[in-house]
Protein: CinA-like protein
Amino acid sequence: MRIEILNTGSELLLGTTLNTHGRWFGQQLFDLGLRVQRLTTVPDGDAIRDALAESVQRADVVLVTGGLGPTSDDITREATAEVLGVDLIEDEAAMRSLEAFFARLEKTMAPDNRKQAQVPVGADVLPNGNGTAPGIYVPPRLNGAANCAVFLLPGPPRELYPMFKAEVVPRLRSLGGIEESGERILELKMVGVGESDLHQAVDEPLNQVEGLEVGYCARLAEVDLRLIGKPEAIEKGRALVMARFEEDCFTDDGSELEEVVVRTLAAKGLTLATAESCTGGLISNRLTDVPGASEVFTHGFVTYANEAKVNCLGVSEDDLAAHGAVSEPVVRQMAEGALKESGADIAVAVTGIAGPGGGTDEKPVGTVFLAVASRTGETRVHKRMHLRDRKAFKRTVSQNALDLVRRELRHIS
Structure:
């Protein structure tokens, strides 16, 4: 089944609203054994009509989001009726639903809201229990332009997602005679290995696995390896990858690195503290975004100034003067000071030069030192170089720090 997604709304192209629908639709449709063939985003206005006219000629199903509101720029209904060659009428049931919605809110419905009850003749109205805009399903038999089914769905996720699951999925199953495909998707998330190195090591053997589809996605300080196929093919692929990169794979269940760290700390009954300079608290922020972090995360020291490093963590003033804040002796003392002051089982520390200024010939912009200290082993110090903009530098260093903790935990029973 050829499925296209048409997202409408100028705000999606102006960058004021993040378009998350493509990712969500892709996941939901894959679970049905279906794939999105094309995703198009267009502004409000005539572009909706033009894009829909193209899509219905190529696709078996088009899912349109947005443009079902009461304002003048909400013209998805009108554009659809024009493209498909059908008339619009006011649907009595849709109107009653609108009136009931406003009655529950104890508000008077504005006259402009009446347009939300406009429906192509013969189309199905898809109830919206979370907003005013009902969805619309135009089956192929009503389509005067092509043998294509068209779904008009509200844009807000809180309205779209429940409607898709309740109203769209059953109709897709009926249209395509969909049965369980047996295909699954496994995503192995790696840190500490580059995309090209991973590709060179595993791509050829993975391509020898019959029925396995392989894909790569590089992110900041992370590479995701996607395996798609039947369970037996995925398991063969997974075994090939883990034989080479088990140390670097931090999850196969979609978790973020901070979630893995918090979960592992909890499972081992251990606690963690952080000492941050160049990341300004980002490591602590990522950890505390995870539910349950309060059980394992004790202290977050943001010692940006040298005085703070001395007063909060006991860093030597002589070492700061002799080696500078971005140095092996200082980051070591930061980690060990955080361990001592917090009473935690593990502490991680970072200090670096985020830029764009502040670098020297000896320590250029992008230089960073990281250290992890634990009560059961020696303090480990690492020097890295990350030539990125300031925000990406901070994110990458926070990823490095969390990965050091993850790797340390692997060796603690």
